[in-house]
Structure formats: structure tokens, C-alpha cells
Amino acid sequence: MKNNTQSKKIVLIQLMGMSPAVLTETIWALAVQYSLIPDEVIILGTDKSISNLHQKMFAENIWNEFLKDFKNSKYNIKNKLTYGKSQACNIIFPSMDNSKDLSDVRNLDDSESVGNTILKVLNNYTSNPDIRIIASIAGGRKTMGAIFTTCMTLLARPSDMLCHVLVSDPFENQSLVPQFFYPKKEIIHELNDKQFPSKKCTLTLSEIPFIRLRSWYEKELKSIPRTSFKELVSILQGKVSAKLSNITLKLSNKELCLGGGSINLSPIQAYSMFLYFNKIKKDGFVSSWKELVSEENDAKIKLQNFTWFNDMKIKQFDVNEDLRKSASEIKKKLLFGGASKNEIDLIFPDFQKKIKNHFPAGSFSIV
Question: Who contacts 35 (Cβ-Cβ below 8 Å, separation ≥6)?
Fold first, then answer.
């Protein structure tokens, strides 16, 4: 069995709207920036968008020209970029009752059907450990991209990628003549009586960071039905809420409780967590550890009756250094106690950077 990223089969799953160029642009940018060439291409879109894609790629011969130019650019595409007009390569979103193919995504039922379809396709490919997914949300409506991103959050594995392609101005303009599909040396495009050499276009593949929740529920996923987008989101949301509804700092015995388990804290660690929790409960958010300096006066009042606090050398406490050190130690304790890395990273983000995300203030309590 293949066991590393390089040896995995790469499948590009491309959302498609009414701009077929996103397909060739994405593949070109993947090769140039990441030296990645998909083995297989899957298109997800409406009946209208896929018909438009086929008109451009096959009736107007863009796809064959692209493969020829790609090969001439010294990229090895042997046994790669498998794509054609078959239903297996082009998945059209059906209506919610499966009575017809969608020509557009306009209402809640359409959106739910899109979610179900994307979930089914992703589940099929992510169930195979020998396949790496590259999911492109460069095409289609914003709703489709948002749903695709959510599905990736639910099912993607560490090696899977979510991306978007950016095209330099004016090459993304649909009024360009001829239409731009990828940098082609001999082509000169025209727009408003101005000329633009195709080779001057810059294509930038933007890899989109996202939270992967699959590792949280790998065991549960085997028994959870993955045919309904809304149902899966609802089930997993319930599990997240149950797991993280109560993150409690117990001051009397310097204890941090999470998801039914608990760890003991040193006085410095307990003090650090009090500053952090107290600030979140007050303001709902913390942007940097430096902000916690403002909580020290409050801490001296609220913690004055605890022996461990009075015995602590508070004058020697450095907010930046001791908070960072305490956080690192607490993370190790939580990992040892059975908490997942995803849980810990959401509660205690990287202390060497600005705090970006944590659970809502209501998840934190101090007793």
C-alpha cells in the first residue's frame, strides 16, 4: 500500500460555474507552483455549467490544445489528467427529489442537494487512503464554494488540499478576445482596443487553510450516515457541543476540566489560565497575550483568598513569557490526558502568534 503523499493518486475535484477557464487555470497553477499534476479530474456543477464547459473544452478543442501545450512545456502528463465527457468525470447536481438536473442553484432545496452530492463524492474518494484530494472552489456560485468548504472540513484528511486560483488583471475578464484559458506564448488578447500578451498573465494558486474535523470523529464516522449533508452537520455539531460545552477552571484545587476529564495545574499555570479565561468571558475574544496584562488587577482581587495564589511569587510573573510556557505545558498535559490536538488548538491557539480562534465565551467557566 502507498504510504506517502508523493505516491498517492491525485484527484482534482473542480467546482464549475460559467467560467470554464478555471479548470485549465487551476491545473496550470498547480503544476507551476506545486509541481503537482492531477491523475484524474472530476467536475461538479449544474447542467448548464457543465454543458458550457464541454462546449469550450471539446467542441472548441480547448482541452486537446491545453494538453498539447502542457506537454510541450516539459510537464510529464503520461497517464495523468484523465478527463472526458463521461458522467463519471462530470457530476451534475440533481434536484432534491432527483427528478431533474439542476440548471442553477437558487433555493434552499438546491443548496441541500448540492451538499448531499459533494458529500457523496468526497466520501467516496476520502475513504481511499491511496488517493489525495485537491478540491478547487474557483468556479460556481459562492454558496457552492461555502458548502464544498464545509464538506472538506468534515471529511478531508491531512494530505487533502482546498484551493482557489487567482488570475491577474485583465485576463479574468470574460470580454477578452480570445478568451483566456492559460498562458499561451503566441496568443495576444484584446480588450478595449488594447493588447495583452497571454504569456504575461500571472496565475496564483491560493491554498486555503481550513480546520479538519475528521480526526475527531474517525471512529464515529464509520457508523454515521454520510448521505445527507444537513444530517451529518447536525450530528457532528451535537458531538462538538457535547464535547466542549464545559471547559472549566476550578480555582480551589487548580484543576482544568475538559470533556469529562481533568488535569492538575501548577500555581503559575492556574494563574495563567485565570487571566486567559477571565478575559475571554469579559470581552468574548483575545487578540494577543499582551492584552491579558489588564486582567492582573482583577486576578489579585478574585484570587486573594486562595492559598496557592498567596504563596505564588506574583511579582516575578511575566505575562508574555509565563503564559507561553504555561500554555505549552498545559497542552502536553491535555494530550497525555486524552484530548485531541484539534481540541487543544481550538481552545489554546499558538501562543507565539496572535490568538486567532477559540471557542465562544460561554464554553469557558471559572469556579
Answer: none
Q: Binning pLDDT at 50, 70 and 90, where does residue 200 land?
A: very high
Q: Are residues 87 and 192 in the same domain?
A: yes
Identify the CATH number of the domain in which residue 11 sits.
3.40.50.10770
Do residues 281 and 176 both lie within one domain? no
274 with 200, same domain: the answer is: no
Residue 140 corresponds to which cell in the numbers above? 460556481
Is 352 within the bounds of a domain?
Answer: yes
Which of 56, 54, 36 is closest to 45 using CA atoms? 54
Regarding whether 249 and 223 lie in a shared domain, the answer is: no
Task: Select from 234, 255, 275 the last residue of a domain.
Answer: 234
Co-location of 260 and 215 in the same domain? no
Exposed, middle or buried: residue 162 (CB in 10 Å: 0-12, 13-18, 19+)?
A: buried
Confirm if 59 and 133 have CB atoms less than 8 A apart.
no
pTM (2 decimals)?
0.67
Q: How many C-beta atoms surround the C-beta of residue 81 within 10 A? A: 19
Q: Is residue 240 a part of any domain in this protein? A: no
E strand spans, 47-202: 90-92, 131-136, 161-167, 188-191, 194-197
Query: Mind listing the pLDDT tens digit for each residue in 242-267?
Result: 555 578 899 999 998 876 678 899 98
Q: What angle do CA 356, 357, 363 make, to 5 degrees?
A: 150
3 state DSSP class of 13 = strand
CA distance 313 to 267: 10
Could you tell me whether strands 255-258 and 247-250 are parallel, antiparallel, or unpaired per DSSP bridges? antiparallel
The string of pLDDT tens digits covering residues 275-305 is 888 888 877 766 677 778 888 888 888 888 8
Range of the domain at 263: 245-366
Residue 309 lies in a domain: yes
For residue 155, which of 182, 133, 184, 183 has the smallest C-alpha distance?
133
What does the alpha-carbon distance between residue 237 and residue 243 come to, in Å, rounded to a whole number?
A: 10
Percent of the chain at pLDDT > 90 equals 54
